[in-house]
């Protein structure tokens, strides 16, 4: 199960990388978002999957789910959400100001 | 247990939250944020003295014993950085009073500024790797908004690159956290240190350490500084100054923490790697600083050189080298704020950052010129100014450890700093005065006071080095001895 998940994470990261390397602002934002989700999956996987019981069953339980990665991933998702919202607004504002969403044209001043 | 440790995080954070409510009342916002930041200075001085007397202090949040809860740990290294950061933040705030503009003040400048400081202080004090990530995000999100504040075209363009770079670095941070957690089962820095010392730092853990190094190198501008010159030259001066003074330093702090507390078993791989990065950073930064004739570009490339130089002390991993790095780090926090404020003031006066169009400012603004001159000499390391001791100890440590090439590059980089700063000084302040008072685009009213305060602090750091030696030596000793940190957390 863990191996499958890691392969999935790899696929998501490669899709994200492809999108980040493109020129359009919106694609870059989507790429970043996908990489963020891949990382969240990786964190969940890092605690082990399908241990078969709930967390916090007491000290003598035979198996239990590690609750920490889930707590971590919750925080990471919230932060990821906030950052994506900020970036989307900023991209829209940049699009309004420059009239373009092409990163090639947002490179910098001429003669630099 | 020491409840004072949470105060430097809580004070700016709560004040910032309260200030959001009083968005319209600018005067109240100014006073409250100034009070909060001055209180942070007082708290960090108190903390420093407690740490001097009682060793490393720790706080287990919510009473959950380490490693189950979240720990806050304050050692001398973090307390010194905390003090320097709070002094700089007060001065940048005062500078912002008369330079940031009424519109920005109503657009939540003060709450954002305080959140930024809360995140920076939190990064210095946290004893938990994931909490470090959260604090990083706290100040990064605040910086995303601050860098675009005003919404000028250049700002939007550069901030997009800044934000994308940082988000990707943060994703790598989380990847490192996930790997480290799956290998060690903990995220408490002290327990990580114990576990890795027990099982040994094998190839896999060293690889993860390199992932963390890449993340923090991106934040610190160590080799991966491609985003830095653009994004640090667009925001308003007060914001650019606090960015240059603090944000890269948090990355440096994180590298120091990770590679002295956790990944210190394979210095021939990791520390050599950092050394190579530092050397390349110093060379490229030096070339940039001496090559450009744009005031802001020169200053931002000087930020990059100093990052490389501070890292050299860590690479040596000797008592002298670390002492030098800590001295230089504190000095650099103060001095980068000074030169960025002076640079911003020059741009404010003349309306241009191109050195070819600026000349002879010293006739009308002698104080500005002399303060810049002091700052320039201090950056180069002329005794008895504050940069001197840092340079001496770092170079001594690097030579002791046998990294001769790194020491030589550090000294050559100092020469390039000297060249670039003197070029800036001669071009901007000497020569014919082309602007009369009436022709100037702005006044220095209210801007000189915070610069003078910081210059005073920097000169005091140089002349009063004797008084601070004990603190710095203790900080270096604690960094070289991870057991002290571990004991303080699990006491």
From TrEMBL, chain A:
It is a multi-pass membrane protein. The chain crosses the membrane at residues 6-21, 28-47, 67-92. Keywords: Cell membrane, Membrane, Transmembrane, Transmembrane helix. InterPro entries: CPA3_antiporter_subunitC, NUOK/Mnh_C1-like. It comes from the Bacteria. It is found in: Cell membrane. GO terms for cellular component: plasma membrane. Belongs to the CPA3 antiporters (TC 2.A.63) subunit C family. NCBIfam families: PRK08600.1, PRK12660.1. This is Na(+)/H(+) antiporter subunit C. It comes from Paenibacillus paeoniae.
UniProtKB/TrEMBL annotation, chain B:
Residues 127-416 form the NADH:quinone oxidoreductase/Mrp antiporter transmembrane domain. Belongs to the CPA3 antiporters (TC 2.A.63) subunit D family. The keyword Transferase does not apply. Keywords: Antiport, Cell membrane, Membrane, Transmembrane, Transmembrane helix, Transport. The keyword Transferase does not apply. This is Na+/H+ antiporter subunit D. The lineage of its organism: Bacteria, Bacillati, Bacillota, Bacilli, Bacillales. It is a multi-pass membrane protein. It holds the Pfam family Proton_antipo_M. GO terms for biological process: ATP synthesis coupled electron transport. It is found in: Cell membrane; Membrane. GO terms for cellular component: plasma membrane. One of its GO terms (molecular function) is antiporter activity.
């Amino acid at each position: 199960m863990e191996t499958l998940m890691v392969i999935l994470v790899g696929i998501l990261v490669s899709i994200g990388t492809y999108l980040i390397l493109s020129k359009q602002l919106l694609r870059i934002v989507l790429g970043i978002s996908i990489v963020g989700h891949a990382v969240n999956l990786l964190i969940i996987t890092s605690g082990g999957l399908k241990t078969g019981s709930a967390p916090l069953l007491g000290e003598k339980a035979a198996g239990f789910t590690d609750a920490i990665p889930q707590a971590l991933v919750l925080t990471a998702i919230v932060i990821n959400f906030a950052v994506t919202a900020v970036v989307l607004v900023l991209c829209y504002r940049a699009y309004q100001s420059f009239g373009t969403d092409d990163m090639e044209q947002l490179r910098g001043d001429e003669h630099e | 247990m020491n409840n004072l440790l949470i105060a430097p995080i809580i004070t700016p954070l709560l004040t910032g939250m309260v200030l959001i409510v009083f968005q319209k009342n600018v005067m109240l916002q100014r006073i409250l944020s100034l009070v909060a930041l001055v209180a942070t200075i007082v708290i960090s001085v108190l903390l420093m003295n407690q740490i001097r007397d009682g060793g490393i202090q720790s706080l287990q949040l919510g009473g959950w014993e380490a490693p189950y809860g979240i720990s806050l740990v304050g050692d001398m290294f973090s307390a010194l950085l905390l003090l320097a950061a709070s002094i700089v933040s007060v001065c940048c705030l005062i500078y912002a009073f008369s330079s940031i503009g009424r519109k920005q003040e109503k657009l939540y400048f003060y709450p954002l500024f305080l959140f930024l400081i809360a995140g920076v202080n939190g990064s210095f004090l946290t004893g938990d790797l994931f909490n470090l990530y959260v604090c990083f995000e706290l100040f990064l999100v605040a910086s995303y908004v601050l860098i675009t504040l005003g919404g000028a075209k250049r700002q939007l363009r550069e901030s997009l690159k800044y934000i994308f770079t940082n988000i990707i670095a943060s994703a790598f941070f989380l990847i490192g956290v996930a790997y480290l957690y799956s290998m060690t089962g903990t995220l408490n820095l002290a327990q990580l240190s114990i576990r890795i010392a027990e099982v040994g730092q094998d190839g896999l853990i060293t690889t993860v350490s390199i992932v963390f190094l890449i993340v923090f190198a991106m934040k610190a501008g160590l080799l991966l500084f491609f985003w830095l010159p653009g994004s640090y030259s667009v925001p308003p001066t007060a914001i650019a100054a606090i960015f240059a003074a603090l944000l890269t330093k948090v990355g440096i702090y994180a590298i120091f923490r990770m590679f002295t507390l956790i990944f210190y078993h394979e210095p021939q791989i990791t520390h050599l790697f950092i050394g190579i990065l530092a050397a390349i950073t110093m060379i490229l930064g030096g070339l940039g600083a001496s090559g450009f004739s744009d005031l802001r570009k020169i200053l931002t490339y000087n930020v990059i050189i100093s990052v490389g130089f501070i890292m050299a002390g860590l690479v040596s991993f000797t008592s002298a080298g670390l002492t030098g790095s800590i001295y230089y780090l504190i000095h650099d926090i103060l001095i980068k704020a000074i030169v960025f404020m002076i640079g911003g003031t020059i741009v404010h006066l003349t309306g241009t950052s191109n050195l070819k169009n600026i000349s002879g400012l010293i006739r009308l603004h002698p104080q500005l010129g002399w303060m810049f001159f002091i700052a320039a000499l201090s950056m180069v390391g002329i005794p008895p100014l504050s940069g001197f001791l840092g340079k001496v100890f770092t170079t001594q440590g690097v030579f002791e450890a046998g990294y001769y090439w790194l020491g030589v590059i550090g000294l050559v980089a100092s020469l390039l700093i000297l060249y670039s700063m003197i070029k800036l000084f001669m071009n901007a302040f000497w020569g014919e005065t082309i602007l009369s008072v009436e022709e100037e685009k702005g006044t220095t009213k209210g801007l000189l006071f915070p610069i003078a305060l910081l210059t005073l602090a920097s000169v005091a750091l140089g002349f009063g080095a004797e008084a601070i030696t004990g603190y710095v030596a203790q900080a270096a000793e604690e960094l070289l001895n991870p057991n002290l940190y571990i004991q303080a957390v699990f006491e």
